[in-house]
Amino acid sequence: MQREFYEPQQAAELLHCSEAWLLTRATVGEFPHLTWGKGEIVFTDEHLEEITHLREIRQDAAVTSDHGATRTTPTQNPKTAPSNVATSKAIGTTAISTSELPIADWLSPKDICAQLHIPEQTFYQWRVKNLGPRAYRIGRHLRISRSDYEAWLSLRLER
């Protein structure tokens, strides 16, 4: 399956937003993205769908409880993104509910190291240098979605 990659300007046009706004959100970790070459940010179709979904959640976040606290009510649109992604408006992080996804869709650092035949230390060094696949912290565990891992791996294909 051929993946399509979008530069920030192209992604911003498709999302009807400014390139600066999109890059800022990606840089601080609010939006999914891949880093290409010497730190260039690129987006895939899956990233654009997830960003669209996150924007919908923020628009719906104006629902207020009796105590005045704001809570998130995600829209259930299967065409835009899975409904298991929610944002915490206070700190701008992404929370994933692993109970809604099959276990096969998530990989641990050990799984990736076993597949690539590399030591775990190498994986964690890549993370420090922002060279590894995008990972989610779920509790005290790191998990990598299979689609993010495959996209990251496809960027390393030598021709």
TrEMBL record:
Tree of life domain: Bacteria
N-terminal signal peptide: none
GO molecular function terms noted in the UniProt entry: DNA binding
Residue ranges, annotated region (Disordered): 62-85
Location of the Helix-turn-helix domain: 106-153
Membrane-crossing residue ranges in chain numbering: none
UniProt cross-references to SUPFAM superfamilies, sorted A to Z: Putative DNA-binding domain (SSF46955)
Compositionally biased tracts (Polar residues): 70-85
Xref: NCBIfam families: excise (TIGR01764)
Protein name: Helix-turn-helix domain-containing protein
Species for this entry: Arthrobacter terrae
Lineage: Bacteria, Bacillati, Actinomycetota, Actinomycetes, Micrococcales
